[in-house]
Amino acid sequence: MAQIDLSIVIPIAILAGLGFAGILARDVLRRETGSDGMREIADAIRQGARAFLRRQYKTIAFIAAILAVLFAVALGLQRGLVLGLETAGAFALGATFSALSGYIGMHISIRSNVRSAAGSLKSFNDALVTALRGGAVSGLAIVSMSLAGVTLLYYGYGALGAAANPTTYNTCIATGLFTAAQCTAQAAEDTIILSIVGFGFGASLVALFAQLGGGIFTKAADVGADLVGKVEAGIPEDDPRNPAVIADLVGDNVGDCAGRGADLFESTAAENIGAMVLGVVLFQYFGVAGIIFPLVARGLGVIACIVGVLVVRAREDEAPMSALNRGYIVTSVLASLFFGFAAWAMLQPTLPTTSGGLTWAYYWMCGIVGMLTAVAYVWITQYYTEARYRPVKEIASASETGPATNIISGFSVGLEATAIPALVVSIAILASYWLGETTGIPRGGIYGTAIATMGMLSTAAYILAMDTFGPIVDNGAGIIEMSGMSETARKNMDKLDAAGNTTKALTKGYAVGSAALAAFLLFNAFLTEAHVNSGDVHRRVHGSRPRLPFQRLCDSRRRPCRMVDHQRCPGPIPRKPRHHGRDLEAGLRPHGGHRDTRRAEGNGCPRHFGRRNALGRRAHLPLRENHIHCWNANPRRRTAGRLSHGRDYRGSPHGPRAEHRWGSVGQCEEVHRGGQPRREG
Fold first, then answer.
1. How far apart are CA 248 and CA 234, in angstroms?
2. Are 302 and 119 in contact (CB under 8 A)?
3. Alpha helices, DSSP H only, in 161-234?
4. pLDDT in tens, 349-368
5. Distance CA 111, CA 134 (A)
6. Cα 294 to Cα 148, 174, 281, 290, 553, distances in angstroms
7. Cβ–Cβ under 8 Å, residues 49 and 110
């Protein structure tokens, strides 16, 4: 089946996301703001949040300008002025869009809090819907602007024209499977993708400051307000007599709204670019469709999130998380269906594969794996943080006996809560890699992990809506408490505030899980661009090449292996070089056994006999672990006829011009006959 071009989905999704965010913002801002006392408190929160963000963004802008210039100069000197300017421009655009999306989200958040509080005076559902739609403005703006930035750079730099990457071109031509025109097209796409990598760096810079700055501020303000109010003055939380409460409410916005938004903006941008890099590797199989597939999948995910936000409604006696989970389930189901349609339309290979016409189905399942991972993270986080379940009840019960048992119980639950998510993300990586490898496409497994990351982040806009929902209802509860509103309104906002703590926690878990998948994806994208394979990485890290089966067997027996004739023949070696001279002069092999040249093993290796002890049994000398025995049969070496430790060598089985060397794994020279020695490690 021929591929279907779905690139038109990308601009439609961007406009739909930003347009619907504007509609939601208008809907929220038109709602009632409550009494004068509520508005006074909301104004104080708004002023504090604006002041913090303004000061933070000034610092970020100064540092980003310096780094952009450094990028332009450094890359301009190394790779040419054009690439340097393009990378610097992408870096500046990534930082700008990340900061702008965070500002838009917080701008609506600090105005939605008082409106959600006013809605609680009418009904529980009104307060919940107002808070969620205010949060959805942030979520849709962040994901849509991330998608818009990558799309603008990809098509903009592509329209300007790009020179073919010579390394990619030469690698493609060397395979002998593709024409020069095909390799030129692939190399040009590779150049374009590399020029937009700076967008992810710019987003990472803003995320670093927003997460650290906002997170430290919100925790410091929270602890400070509790110490002054509860401990010193003995007054309730959110008491109007405690001015530190305003700083606490400001911290919820700058930390959990702007900070988390910048974090997931960076994750979505980096994941898009990393998946596009891997799409270039499979260019001969999927063409341009494999490169822009991440953008199409992200756009369809935005549309699914819009529908999920609209369906959320709550009954007066219903738990808030039940209504929010209902919207999330709708979003996930729609995203999975849209993902399958995009895979069917765009991931039809142009070359024969093992999976044939079902290649798209395997990659669709990779996306489903990522979505199931996101669902698992959401439910696991809810279990460990929601008041209805065992972990929180245990912590509350432990608090009855004092702070010591409270700390021990809470810390124990925190340690327990990390085990299952680590297992889930490991299973997701392995499953998606296996599904990708099953297609039979070279490096298809790595592309499968990229698609799993796309699947996990396809619901990012809705997750961000629930994240911003947290500080909105937290602020709303504080406004109701400080303004002295009715008991019914307090109960409604307290229920939402408890759910808001859970949504903030599940977004943290979701961000960590998506970052783990994105890190794996970006690392493989780096290896792909650097043309480094896994064996090279193992050799650089561990100082040796990957261990062969018989070598692992020797290690398990606590003795090393002698590597002769292209690593096929294991054998013991003595522990110290001083044994060699005596054995060699006696015409023996260095390992202490005679070499039988008449018979050979089944694998073509000479048969070795160890020296026998007094009982007639073979006994090998004690050996040093991880040593390799290397023979250098290069006749051009001037040191021929000499041992590397200085002794004369006349008894080499390879002839009078052989050299004998010793060394540990990763340091020994493995020499093939007639070739130059190659040093490993």
1. 17
2. no
3. 166-175, 180-195, 197-226
4. 888 788 778 899 999 999 99
5. 8
6. 13, 28, 14, 8, 44
7. yes
What's the confidence (pLDDT) of residue 553?
A: 44
Return d(Cα 524, Cα 522) in angstroms, integer: 5
Residue 436: C-alpha distances to residues 182, 217, 393, 644, 659 (Å): 23, 43, 42, 49, 47
> Would you give the DSSP letter of residue 316?
T
- Residues of the chain scoring pLDDT < 70: 1, 162-163, 525, 528-681
Q: Within 13 Å, how many C-alpha atoms sit on residue 655's CB side?
A: 8
Query: Do residues 408 and 416 touch, judged by C-beta distance below 8 A?
Result: no
Q: What is the pLDDT, as a whole number, of residue 162?
A: 67
Coil, strand or helix at 124: helix
Q: CA–CA separation, 132 vs 462, rounded Å?
A: 9
- Structure confidence at residue 562 (pLDDT): 42
pLDDT digits (tens, 9 = 90+) for 107-137: 888 889 899 999 888 888 999 999 999 999 9
In this structure, how many other beta carbons lie within 10 angstroms of the beta carbon of residue 223?
Answer: 12
Give the H or E element holding residue 597: strand 595-600
Q: Which residue has the tokens 């004690």?
A: 622
Percentages (nearest 5) of helix, strand, coil residues in the chain: 70, 5, 25
Closest CA to 205 of 99, 76, 85: 99
608 backbone dihedrals φ, ψ, rounded to 5°: -110, 140
pLDDT at 636: 43
Q: Is the dihedral of CA 585, 586, 587, 593 positive or negative?
A: negative
Half-sphere exposure of 305 (CA within 13 A, CB side): 35
* DSSP string for 87-107: HHHHHHHHHHHHHHHHHHHHH
